[in-house]
Write a structure and sequence with these properties.
Layout (H helix, E strand, L loop, with lengths): L8 E5 L4 H11 L3 E6 L20 H4 L5 E5 L5 H13 L2 E4 L5 H4 L4 H7 L4 E6 L13 H7 L23 H21 L4 E5 H8 L1 H13 L6 H4 L21 E5 L10 E5 L5 H7 L14 H4 L3 H12 L4 H10 L4 E3 L3 H5 L2 H5 L3 E6 L3 E6 L22 H7 L4 H9 L4
Parallel strand pairs: 1-2, 1-4, 2-3, 4-5, 5-6
Antiparallel strand pairs: 7-8, 8-9, 10-11
This protein binds oxidized coenzyme A.
The site of oxidized coenzyme A (CAO) has 24 residues, from α1, α4 and β5.
Length: 416
Amino acid sequence: MTKALEGVRILDFTHVQSGPTCTQLLAWFGADVIKVEKTGEGDATRGQLRDIQDADSLYFTMLNHNKRSITLDTKKPSGKQVLETLIKECDVMVENFAPGALDRMGFTWERIQELNPKMIVASVKGFGPGPYEDCKVYENVAQCTGGAASTTGFDDGPPMVTGAQIGDSGTGLHLALGIVTALYQREKTGRGQKVLAAMQDAVLNLCRVKLRDQQRLERTGVMEEYPQFSDGKAFGEAVPRAGNASGGGQPGWVLRCKGWETDPNAYIYFIAQAPVWGAICKVIGREEWITDPDYATPRARLPRLKSIFATIEEWTMTKTKFEAMDILNEFDIPCGPILSMKEIAEEPSLRETGTIVEVDHPVRGKYLTVGNPIKLSDSPTDVTRSPLLGEHTDEVLAQLGYSAEAIAALREERVI
Ligand code: CAO
């Protein structure tokens, strides 16, 4: 069976997380991804957070499946020549170096266009044009500057970052969409183009509902679904941290379940969706709330949300999170157990769909990874292990037309 991006060749000049997540997705869709790494050292993540001495870290292996790796010193003249050949042969260059690094290497947009006018040059940067465009950025900086941190956490605590890598992997996803869109447009124009996904922009895109709330707050001075409202607290000028409140029109909260005293994840997310209010009241034994004017309508419930959730919690605490999930789903009440990473890793249905995959690696042995979360019916994903450093240098250079002698000379010069 053919793959969706078969025939597309990617010059993968990415490192750390944001760029590699993007090129990994493209590889899963069938692109030939050639990862160009620094001679001798490679992507810094190969050695970061190691759990097995001398084996590529899980950080690296889990972000670089289905790629080929070549080492190349792109600061030496003969290394630049190899890069030029790669630029001529590839469809897309993806990079996430610090701002200006590619220019300093001598590969400006103009130069790349000269070499290959069809080349799509896709970049992750911390910020778009503006006061911070020259800054280096890591995940949590993006979460803080993109609006996620100021709106995450509890009202009486500091701003919080989330465990979801929305700055890195979130931006990689945005970039991947930009790349396939540019490839599609190139079909009609024959031209390449620049694609930029700034981490601040990607995080802000994911925080869209909070900019919605900023404007609601400015217009009305109050947001009734926020916990501050039922707590009787004043709103300030900016969107406050909403704890575990739902970001949508149906109120929700995290509630304790049986075992919460010892299990940090014995909780369930409970959504008091309006259409199933009657069912909720019946399940928790509060049928009088169905007709009581203080509880019967969503609007009447808003100032009482805190005490309503406390009452629902009295019920959830008598059930395990999985028992509560089963009972509530019988009545179509939207809810979700708080799953630990251990529970997710062991979940058979995620293995069956390929969302969690066991991969074998020649140095580290078997490990678990997250497979392709996007399923195409006509382009299935086979997850293959990440490459060793420079594993494909000779193979790729030979494909580019370099003779065995020329390859040996480059190795002698320590360019590869
Ligand atoms: N051969 C020779 N030199 C190479 C090379 C190669 N194959 N690959 C990279 N280099 C050079 C670069 O040209 C650069 O040199 P100069 O500083 O002389 O221009 C140098 O290696 C270091 O690149 P860098 O500045 O990108 O790396 P860093 O570790 O200092 O910074 C990071 C890392 C992530 C902060 C920075 O790359 C960045 O801000 N990237 C954009 C935002 C981003 O993607 N952040 C997400 C990171 S994931 O959390």
